[in-house]
Amino acid sequence: MIDAKTALALGIVNQVVPAAQLEAAVKTLAQNIAQGPSLPIRAVKKALFASEARNSRRLSTMKFANRFVVSCQRTAARGFARFSTSGPPKFQGK
What we know:
Elements: H1 4-10, H2 22-34, H3 38-52, H4 56-71, H5 74-81
Helix pairs in contact: 3-4
């Protein structure tokens, strides 16, 4: 077991908050995820579940398929456009 400061330094986590602020930080993170692109989020969830089951062949297949599907979506184009425009993209899962 490692402490939070070490986990942050190693890049295992990307944020550490005091216990009193944990609930608010979790809600903020959940809202940010919910407003994001649904297809890539779904792909990440499937990959996490596959890796948890230690199914490397299925995981490799899913990574390839997910990259293809996500790159073909209109939301991907909006995501890429985000770098050249101001304001957050409006993901619609299409």
